[in-house]
Design a protein that fits this description.
mainly beta, 5-stranded mixed β-sheet, 4-stranded antiparallel β-sheet, 14 strands
Length: 174
């Protein structure tokens, strides 16, 4: 009755068992981790429809999947707040939030934002969220990039990398 769309969300789907064409096949599997796999092969259209869902599992959703600080004048800083939200059916355990790359141009504050995640491991109940802040300081003219890495027990994406970029600019004399 359901399948995944391109974003991975469950959407209604018409798969009527027992009324397929010759060559059609159906499969339902429940894995040890609670993940349910449903697949249907439509022999007429040569198409596989499938759905996967983890029942009772944690799920992480972030407010930004990429962070572009744009143009920042040398010596100035811009800060963005990223929200981590537990949208699954079980508590989400965030084991690490860290910054990779970027040198001194980027800094991470796990206590930033309105609902600070804080340093170290953190557990978020379903529906609960926390925030971190990422700052880009243009120390020289030119581009800089880093990755904000979030490790959790999300069954789909245990290691989430959020690309961050910014460009330092100098004032143009008037």
């Amino acid at each position: 009755k359901y399948r995944n769309d391109a974003s991975g969300a469950w959407v209604p789907s018409e798969v009527i068992l027992g009324r397929g064409s010759v060559g059609d096949s159906y499969s339902l599997t429940v894995a040890d981790n609670g993940r349910v796999h449903v697949s249907f092969y439509d022999a007429t259209n040569r198409e596989i429809l499938y759905a996967t869902r983890v029942v009772g599992a944690p799920d992480l959703v972030v407010s930004s999947t990429a962070i572009d600080f744009g143009l920042v004048e040398v010596g100035e800083s811009e800060t963005r707040v990223i929200t981590l939200r537990s949208t699954g059916e079980a508590a989400l355990n965030v084991s690490d939030i860290r910054l990779i790359g970027g040198g001194v141009a980027f800094s991470l504050d796990p206590s930033g934002g309105a609902e600070p995640c804080g340093a170290g491991a953190r557990s978020l109940d379903p529906g609960e969220s926390c925030t971190v802040s990422l700052t880009f300081t243009a120390r020289a003219a030119g581009s800089a990039a880093a990755s904000l890495v979030i490790e959790s027990d999300d069954a789909d994406v245990g290691l989430l990398e959020i690309a961050a970029s910014g460009t330092g600019t100098t004032k143009t004399p008037v």
